[in-house]
Amino acid sequence: MSPPAPQTTGYRYLFTLPGARRFTAGNLLARLPVGMFSVSAVVMIAGSRGSYALAGAVTATGLAATAVAGPLLARLVDRHGQARIALPATVVSVLGSLALLLCVRYDAPGWTLFAAYAGTAATPNIGGLSRARWTHLLRDEPGALHTANAFEQAADELCFMLGPVLASFLTGTFFPEAGTLAAAVLLLAGMLLFTAQRATEPPPTPRSQGPSPLRSPGIPPLLACFTATGAVFGSMEVVTIAYADAQGHRAAAGAVLALQAAGSCAAGLAYGARKPESVRFSWCLAAMAALMTLPWAAAGLAGSLWALAAALLVAGMATAPTMVTAMTLVQNRTPADRLNEGMSLMVTGLLTGIASGSAAGGWAAEHLSPASAYAIPVAAATVALGVASLTRTGGVRGTP
């Protein structure tokens, strides 16, 4: 008997799989608005109402609503399939974005901003839908799945790199609501293309045989780590916009945030090209906690937007390896027939953290100073490391 053929890995291999290029194209188009919505909403609301605290609170409300609705929506996806659930949910989300735009445009009462933005909670976990397809296609190839996870994280970072720049350009060049309007159109178009690719869609499981992901060993501490990591992202975004505004360069905020995503994207692609057997989750979190001190130091000591931009580029390099390792752990520990639910649960934790971080960052930037507010992401990253260390989550490698 001849020995089994070695597994093929590498980014090129991923896109030789039938249908992979088409569903990836649709997913990237739908995912780009994820990096646009928050920045567009913050700029639109703060410019109209003159309050970063209000802008942060509104975006936090929408993210919190998404955190609650996400796992329920993902459970429906697992049971009924991606196309039947994700597309109608996207339509509801787009209507929520348009409602927010109209409320800001026509100076509606403040409470309507919260109600309208909460409608975006119907946005599907777009990255999770794509990762579920890779898990289905590469279920017998763990090395290739690691590479696919790294590609997906790099795609997330690419969208967060381009999204804020595009949002800042549209809101600054045309009208304040232009970013939100363009994001809604791109989201709907991308989801139409993605869900049209039925050949690569994982088969639905009407009756799940697996336990709830929350009952799977190791998942609760991972959820806590995702929440703390989300607080890093949420606070960093709002604080950076406020800092750029205080420096008289509000239009440059998107570009500065894009550098953080660029550092993460590059690190993620490099990480996916190597075998990570020796990389532990706690090491990634320790690197993130250490590097998050750089923006704080740059803002407080240098007082320069360009120094901050360089610090964010370096600080971002710990993000993608952390998220890839964490998501691999989630995939390994979640029952196969509840994979969308398990990944969406992690996104729920992430969004809960982003919401909390956005609110805390907005409050600190307004009541303390934008430079001092950079202590918030440092504290959140330290909490994530502490949770992983105390629960020994960090002692588990990111591969099977």
UniProtKB/TrEMBL annotation:
What domain of life? Bacteria
- Kindly give the Gene3D superfamilies that the UniProt entry links to this protein: MFS general substrate transporter like domains
Q: Keyword Repeat: yes or no?
A: no
Residues passing through the membrane, by range: 28-46, 52-73, 85-102, 108-129, 181-200, 221-244, 250-269, 281-299, 305-330, 342-365, 371-390
- Keywords tagged on the record: Membrane, Transmembrane, Transmembrane helix
Q: Which InterPro entries match?
A: MFS (IPR011701), MFS_trans_sf (IPR036259)
Name of a matching Pfam family: MFS_1
Recorded protein name is MFS transporter
Q: Which species?
A: Streptomyces cinerochromogenes
